[in-house]
Amino acid sequence: MSSRVAVVYNHVGEDEYEKLKEIDPASLEFKPEYSIHVSTVQEEYDSVVRALEKEGFRARSFNVKDDLKALKKLLTRRPPDVIFNLVEHFKESPMLESSVAGLYELYRIPYTGASPFALGLCLRKGLTKQVLLANGVPTPRFKLLHDPVVPRRHGLRYPLIVKPAREDASSGMDKGSVVFDFESLQTRLAKVAAEFSPPYLVEEFVEGSELHVAVLGNDPPVVLPIIEFDFSELPDDYPKIISYDAKWNPLEEVYHRVHSVCPAKLPRRVEKAVEEICLKAYQITGCRDYARIDLRLDKKGRPFVLEVNPNPDLTEGVSFMESAEKAGLTFSNTLRMIVEYALKRRPTT
Ligand SMILES: Nc1ncnc2c1ncn2[C@@H]1O[C@H](COP(=O)(O)OP(=O)(O)O)[C@@H](O)[C@H]1O
Ligand SMILES: [Mg+2]
After folding, report:
1. How much distance in Å is there from the Cα of 344 to the middle of ligand 2?
2. Which among 285, 346, 278, 309 has a CA at the least distance from the CA of 117?
3. pTM score, two decimals?
4. What is the tens place of the pLDDT at every residue in 210-238?
């Protein structure tokens, strides 16, 4: 009999992308390159369910809606054979993402993706960087600050980038994230601190290309075709970064000015170095099943890991799935493989 998969996610409040449906692209002040009618949150989860059904699983979706009792009910009354874990936060806290996975552990239900440990580690970007460095994986030089203050002689070389150390999905990243002198560094830190809790990361800005590297599987994991970002169409006064708007907001021009190229056209030597580093980062941080590693190359083509993303976005055609498709896998094939990795961890007693 085919396995029963619960596609578990946590979404509360309105679906922001629903509103985009009413907007006429012609009403924007710029010419959008990509469709502004991106899938809604609901459509995305539905597409995962449909793809899993296509692969022969009995799949259904379950929105936790911050309701612990409802989640417990799912896990205890006729629990699914496996959970496709798409929960990224609980009660608005990304730090509780790992606790939700902990609950699956306690009820001994196999689930896709990373363990609570890896989820918790990778969300602590500063700690992850320390762990990577200790294991010989290069990452940009940085200071981890518990208060939004930094001495003038901090020892880092400008330009610098300031980010909240425990957020993901480009939260807090905008036009002002990159700073060129001490005064703007202080101002930026104060601004980030007004919005996000500590700690904060101040990091040397790596000026070369940005690469996103999808890693799939376990024994052994494999690197899928690398994505490189082309920032050349961004306005001159906009930093060459994937800001929040560039990543998520189709109503902003920058969303339409950052392009992905896959497979990246890299010298073989650089590609090999990137692959090695990514596999090492995946293993050191305890990633499992699938993950995406974000890197930048410096002017000499040397790679530096920015962060490790366990359980990255699986939207069809973009990011992780763009790489999977370039590797010859379909959306549904890839999802099936991820479910199968989790099913292998089914407890035997
Ligand atoms: N040290 C850095 N050098 C250059 N760009 C950076 C650096 N750190 C972050 N960025 C830019 O900011 C974006 C978001 O930062 P990242 O560390 O990947 O966090 P997240 O994606 O979780 O928000 C990256 O995709 C990259 O464009
Ligand atoms: Mg990132």
Report:
1. 29
2. 285
3. 0.95
4. 999 999 999 999 999 999 999 999 999 99
